[in-house]
Amino acid sequence: MSVLRVDTAVLTLTFNQDVINCTIGRSGPCEAEQKREGDGRTPLGTWPIRTVLFHPGRSAPFHGLKLPWRWIGPQDGWSDDPADPSYNRPVRLPHPFSAETLIRDDPLYDIIITLGHNDSQPIAGQGSAIFFHICYENRGTEGCVAIDRATMDSLLPKLAPGDLMTIV
After folding, report:
1. So what's the pLDDT on residue 131?
2. For residue range 112-148, what is the model confidence (pLDDT) as tens digits?
3. Which of 20, 35, 135, 157 satisfies CB 3.0 to 4.6 Å to 43 for a cystine?
4. What whole-number distance in Å separates Cα of residue 8 and Cα of residue 167?
5. Please, what sign has the CA dihedral across residues 106, 79, 35, 165?
6. CA Rg, the chain, in Å?
7. pLDDT tens digits along 67-88
8. 24-54: per-residue pLDDT in tens?
9. pTM of whole model > 0.90?
10. Closest CA to 100 of 83, 119, 77
């Protein structure tokens, strides 16, 4: 098991001996219990790395990828509505509740690594879609952790089931 450590004070991600620049939520970090839907804050804590989602034509799994993965398409969304019984879960679009579209015009979601924040019996309103994804124009995220594409491409082959992301 490996741990990716995100230091929110200096905006770095450390993996083995590599120290990588990263971005976090536009409103900074918060304790996980204080995370609220739409607040733009990154929840502190240790989160399991779950799966990888690839945008066809912009990214692809490579031979030897150890993490589980799947393609995303225009029908793929992620519920961000606390009133939705499927809150903080992948959903099919169109969806009767509010949901984030996973196919985007910008490169943010060309590769999405889903993190296990608020996903085991999600608590409505305590944050959804906390991902590890591609950074775009060094902008703060909606609460996710993001790195540049070249670094993501080199890091992804090193990750395996059971790995964790610790955000401090």
Report:
1. 98
2. 999 999 999 999 999 999 999 999 988 999 999 999 9
3. 35
4. 7
5. negative
6. 15
7. 999 999 999 999 999 999 999 9
8. 999 999 999 999 999 999 999 999 999 999 9
9. yes
10. 77
**The pair of three-digit structure tokens given for residue 88, joined into one six-digit string:** 């903080």
Alpha carbon distances (Å) from 161 to 1, 16, 38, 52, 68: 8, 16, 29, 11, 8
pLDDT at 138: 85
Which residues does residue 47 pair with via DSSP β-bridges, in sequence order? 165
Instruction: Say which residues have a Cβ less than 8 Å from residue 26's Cβ, sequence separation at least 6.
Output: 40, 139, 140, 141, 142
Structure tokens at 30: 């918060």
Nearest residue to 113 via CA among 76, 63, 69: 69
- Which among 166, 147, 149 has a CA at the least distance from the CA of 45? 166
Mean pLDDT of 6-32: 97
Instruction: Respond yes or no on whether the N-terminal peptide bond of residue 94 is cis (omega within 30° of 0).
Output: yes
Tokens 């296990």 — which residue?
116
Q: Find tokens 């399991």 and name the residue.
A: 48
Instruction: Look up residue 164 and give its two tokens.
Output: 């964790």
